[in-house]
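New to this. Comment on this protein:
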Amino acid sequence: MNRKMSNQMRVALQTMAALASAESSEEASNAVGDIDNEWWKTAVFYQIYPRSFMDSNDDGIGDLRGVLSKLSYLAETGITATWLSPIFQSPMIDFGYDISDFKAIHEEYGTMEDFEELIAEANRLNIKIILDFVPNHSSDQCEWFIKSAAREEGYEDFYVWADGHINEDGEMEPPNNWQSVFYGSAWTWHPERGQYYYHQFTAEQPDLNYRNSKVVEAMDDVITFWLDKGVSGFRVDAVNHLFEDPELRDEPLSGKTQDKSSHLYTEHIYTKDLPEVYDMLYHWRNLLDEYTEKHGGPARIMMTEAYADLKFLMDYYENADGSKGPHFPFNFFLLTDISQTSDARDYVFNIQKWLTYMPRNHVANWVMSNHDNPRIASRLGVDSVDAMNMLLMTLPGVAVTYNGDEIGMQDFRDISWEDTVDPPARNVGPDKYKEVSRDPVRTPFQWSGEKNAGFSNADKTWLPVHPNYEELNLEIQKSLEKSHYSVYKDLIELRKLPVMEQGRTALEVISRNVFTVTRSLKGHSSILTIINTSDEEQMVNLLEVLDEDIKQLTVLVSGVNSIYDKGTEIPQEDFEHFILTPQEALVCMIE
């Protein structure tokens, strides 16, 4: 389809962008306070995995100065908020999610001065920095744990300790049948203390005891410390694991496996999603709001990670009494419940259920990959990248992008056992490690076709670079007229339109394989996203979803393999037999 954009339409699009910019400027000057409080509501949060983003000192490990050097790339792309996976002092058993000092920077990543410089440059570029807050556990090398193991006064109950019991063979056993998420018993014997300690993840990550008010105070102090450093909020890790049954009751068997060491062996009714989690989240939200009220400036926000029941998650937003929790709990349904076999009905169902259950006057969010799960290109197919980014960016609310998804990076699934470092993978051994390893999704960012994809000049990087980097990298995509990256940039620009920021959302299944998302706002042109979820060409009748008085569609964003160019005008006579190529998606203005 090569109907080129008319001069009239070109002017219309330019005017549309100018009006959006003017409206934003007017709002900025007239309602600074409102915008400061609501900056996050339509933001794209760009997740950086610092260890794999950019290496500034050629040791093969990404670092803060590497991130600093690439902030201009984020600004050029249009990113205004970035979330950094953990950068704190750590033995790196779980690559930063085992923290030994919550107020220090890990030496491989740099210094506190580097971090302060990063914050200053981010502020200059109008990029907000969100830190990964890991409250459920610390490292076993944390001073708190060492003091708790020694029963030092004030720290005796900082962690979850329990006596074991003697079995019929006269051997000491853990207190109950709880398993670690990372395989094996969730209990480890501590000879100095003479008790078992509880850890939902690795043995080197003992769980903190949030039934102890001193732990809550210590973590409040950590939050305030980083707020004082200038961060704009936190992504809170594994929040639904914060509390466990104080009676330490055995969990019922799930029937899913006979492997007693597997996390699937029991139903986790006593170690996950306990109601006390809500109060902890409401407490932290109150802390953030009070800090913002006291110190001024933009709202400090909290977004939470929990793979949990939908209804449970919805009460994170707020409870029946109006107590507020995180600004948004991560929505993983497009990640966990969508696969290459999903069709249009599955997509619409999973999108609609979040919008249906979400309390009114709250903000939706959409996540399609992260550092723990397969990338879009690997999970849904390399041809789906543009379509999924179009979906992510045209749905209402917050969009979350994992670094590399803007260029269609793929998982490196052939990492050898010798190069594997992920704890769950190492725990299950060389025969099964590929089934659980997260290393394939954490490989270095592919900046260019140079050595190590431009990530590092080291002879060996902490994880191997994907071998496809010479063909798939940012530098090449920037040089092309049409690429995944250019599509992504167009989508970020599109999100600035009032209809995208404030418009209502309607989803419709046109056929088993094609669905639409329509954004509409009174006084503004509506935006239509059309997506083919299948590997085959589809013909659909757009008259089923468009009013009969609509004269044409104008393509605003199209993918790298699309038969439609940006600016193509699609007249009404083409609506009835509209063609979409495999995995194709379009974003169009309705006229």
User: Anything to note?
Assistant: The chain has a mean pLDDT of 94.
